[in-house]
Each structure stands twice: as C-alpha cells, then as structure tokens.
Amino acid sequence: MRSSDLGYIGGMKAWVNWLASVGLLWVAACGSGGTVATSDAGVLPTPPIVEALFDAPDDVIRLDIEIEPTEIALMMSDLEVQDSLPEEERDYDYFDCTVRFQGTTYEHVGIRHKGNSSLIQPYRDGRTKLHYKLDFDKLDDDYPETEDRTFLGMDKVNLANGFRDPTLMRDILTVGLLREFGAQAPRARSCAVYFNDEFRGLYAVIEQVDKTFLRDRFGDDSGNLYKPGGGGEGGALTRFVPEQIEKKTNKKESWSDLEEFIEELNDPDVDIETIFDVDSFIPWLAVSVAICNLDSYLARPHNYYLYNNPATGLFHFISWDHNVSYGTNTVDGFDHTNVHTYPVDVPSIPGTPLVERVLAVAEYRQRYEALIDQLARHPMGSVRAIKLHAAMRPWARMERFPFSVMYDSSDFDRNLDELVAVPAFKPNTPGLLDFIEKRRAFLLTR
User: How many CB atoms lie within 10 A of CB 267?
Assistant: First the structure.
C-alpha cells in the first residue's frame, strides 16, 4: 500500500471520528444503498428511465463516447475559433458521436463544447478534460430516425469537468443540498467518461434545464424560460437588458413578460409574492449563503434561469453551475482565509432586487434566518462527501495530464480537507471538509 493511500485512510478515519463527535453520522446523506460501481465494471444495473439515472446519486456510472478522429479535429478547430471571440458571441457547433451506456447504443448524438472559464482556461492550459453537452436528437435533420429520441427521457445532458474543484463533487453536493431544502436545481451525479475506450476523466453528468426539466418540475413546459447573465444590470434584474439575457424557449415570441416582471420587481409597491415564487427562492438563498455559493446571483449575478410558469402565474428561480461553491469563488474582502465568515445579514451585493425584496419582508427574513440556523446544525454535505469520495476515488486517482483539471491526481484526496492550487488560476481551492467545519462554526456563533 502506498504512503499516500495510508495518509488518505488515516484522514478518512479522523473525519469519521469528527462527524461522530458532532452527531452527524446518522444522516442518510441522500444515499440509496445501491452497489458502488468500480473502475472495472464502471456501470450500475438501472432501468432506462430518467429517475433511474439519479436514483443512486452517490455511486459512479460510466459513459462511453465513440467519435471519429476527423470529428474530434473539427470540434477542436471550432473551439479554437470560439476562443478568439468575445464570450457573449461564442456559439459552439455540434458534431457526430456515438454514446454507449449500460448496454444501449445511441448513434448520431450531437456533441459540442460548452462553458466559459471552465472550458476556455483548461483549453488554454493544454488540458483536454473539457466541458461537453450531449444532444440526443440534435442531428435529426441528417438522421431522421433520431427525431425526438431521448437519453433516459432527457433530450440533453451536460458533462462538467470539475474545473477549480479537485474534489470533483462540489456541483453534485450543492444541487443535492439545494433540492433537499426545496430549491429548484438540476440533478447531478458522478460519471466516468471514456472517449474511444480511453479514460478521459471523472465528470459530473448534469440535467439540462430545458423543456424536459420544466415538464418534470412544473408539469408545464409552455412558458418562457430565460437565462440572465453577464453580471450586469440584466443579470441582476435591475433593468431589462436583452443583450445580457438568453431566451431559451419560445424564442420567436415576445419578451414582454420578462420586461414587465423586472419593472414590477423593482417597484416597491408591488408585492413580490404576486410575481415571484418566493417559497423555493428562500431555500436557494439560505443554502447558497450557508455554503458560500458566490459565483451566483449573490455576488456575480448569473448562473440561474427564470421560468414564467403559466400554471402558477409566477416566475421561478432555477439554480445552475455550482462547481465553485463551498467557498471556492471569492469576492472583494473575502479570500480562502476568511470566506467562511461571509455575511448572512446582507448576503448579496447591492443592486440584487430578488434578494433585497425578499429579505425586506419580515416573514421571509424569519424563514431565511430559520433555515440558516438549521443549516448550521446540518452536515451541509460533509457526510455525503466522504461517501462520494470513496466511490469516486478509483477513477479520480486515474486522472493524468492532459485528461485532468488538477495539477496531480493526489489533489483529489488532499482537497477533501486541504487547500490546493488549481492550474492556470490564481485563487486556491479551500479544503471541502475544512471549509464546512469552519463555516458551520461561524454560523453557530454569529
């Protein structure tokens, strides 16, 4: 046994003892009791339905992608072109691949790159563990037999590379915690990805927020879905700025509903609960503040969707992109040394009306504060992290340059508790369990 493995085992025993001492080991941690896949088998025997893909979220599945070298070359050429464009102008092309999963073959699947810094920075650093999106009926113009085809009920899935997260689980832990507390977020789980039988790394496979997602969560996909971003007034929703917002459904129809929503959101005479789903937003706010999910509406207004649901007449907030949660993405005045002290009373930057309007209502602030108190006494993902880490370790330790966004595969073990550096990026990534311990202590004593 290697000394690094002995150190890992010793560290795990120490954390198990700590969790037991604070009374957290009783938590089920979202586990399902399924058989943990190994790097040899790589798959789980699950039936082909959407829920089945996520019903054992603490196990690892395997996804095989077969793609011709010519398609890979074209896809990399497209990435080179897109890298030369401003972020808001990038539009990645789809290419043809075959996907194999648990004995089922999906031919002529569309594959493309996706993401911004999580894609471009590893690419510029010479790494090939990049973000991808798979669309299972994208190529139906050329291959009519793929029209309306789904992957376990989903049109699209995303493969996230874990950029700036050597634990490779922050996205998975965050969406699990958000959903546990009642916020809207896509499901995610760990996935070993192979290209042409070659291991390409351990990814998070994440649901796409699209019409399938809307039907699953809201029972109605006919409303307008928007993705504000850019970190400006449009993303913050202080002003209607179409250039900073993507319309994801009903693209040829009017945007007037969003324009009216933003106008009313910024009108203090309008009761926010008459236009916005406050009930699922308060859990998002409390969880995001508790785990310092700062690359979000809190501090850089982006990484979320808004859905105008015809069934409720309300806009709903849907969280997105959580790889730098748990204190990894910092803001002015807070770095890896003190991010665990990020404030609770005023948790967002000025000019974020969703937060400001909600917390201005005494009842809603009380609910938010109560959830913060509950989270301070909650494992906040620590128990689940240990279980996930053990299941993911056989693959994570196989990652090597260039098929990795870590400096070294040993970072996977170290970052569970220790601060580590991240290639091509100056900020360090706090140890996951260490951050949770310090954050909980701060929340308990604030």
Answer: 12
* Assigned token pair, 190: 């760990």
Cis amide leading into 347 (omega within 30): no
Q: Which of 218, 238, 375, 246 is nearest to 304 (CA)?
A: 246
H helix or E strand, kind and range, residue 285: helix 278-290
3-state secondary structure of 230: coil
Q: What b/e sequence results for 102-116 when a residue is b if at least 16 CB atoms lie within 10 Å of its CB, and e otherwise?
A: beeebebbbbbbbbe
Closest C-alpha among 294, 303, 383, 386 to residue 22: 383
Instruction: Quote helix, strand, coil % in the chain, to nearest 5.
Output: 35, 20, 45
pLDDT, tens only, 10-22 = 555 455 454 544 4
| Structure confidence by residue, pLDDT tens digits, 417-426 | 999 988 877 6
Nearest to 120 by CA among 158, 81, 165: 81
Rounded Cα distance, 395 and 61, in Å? 11
The SS3 call for residue 191 is strand
The sign of the dihedral angle between the CA atoms of 363, 365, 370, 374 is positive
Predicted structure pTM score: 0.90
